[in-house]
Amino acid sequence: MISDKTFQKIVTSFDQVTEEPHFEKTSFRIRKKIFATYDSKTRLVCVKLNAIDQASFCSFDKQIIYPVANNWGRQGWTLINLEKVLEETLHDALETAYNTVKGKG
User: Fold this and answer.
1) Has this prediction a pTM greater than 0.90?
2) Exposure winner among 6, 27, 32, 101, fewest CB in 10 A?
């Protein structure tokens, strides 16, 4: 299980990350573009991945990392369960999302 403190430390470790409210969640952005959100009530992180990365991360265990169940999921938005994910996997997914969104700027 990843604590909120550990998640916060990982997600803010990347250059130029800003933290802003996003509806009932917290968003993490690079150059004003969201690469991750966090819902403290459900303990789910949502990251923006390209199709290949999404398929790769989701192949590990669909109870831990899985696409959002709608058009957002088909656009690469992927949920990560902080109760079950390993810290290294979380870090890799966040870094991949960060680089995916950063590369678009």
Assistant:
1) yes
2) 32
What is the edge-to-edge ordering of all strands in the sheet holding 17-22? Answer: 17-22, 25-30, 33-39, 44-48, 77-81, 65-67
Range of the domain at 68: 4-103
d(CA 26, CA 89): 20
pLDDT digits (tens, 9 = 90+) for 11-67: 999 999 999 989 899 999 999 999 999 999 999 999 999 999 999 999 989 999 999
- Cα–chain center distance at 25: 12
Q: What angle, rounded to 10 degrees, do the helices at 4-11 and 87-103 form?
A: 30
Structural domains of the chain, count: 1
Judge contact between 91 and 65, C-beta under 8 A. Answer: no
**Residue 69, domain CATH:** 3.90.1150.30
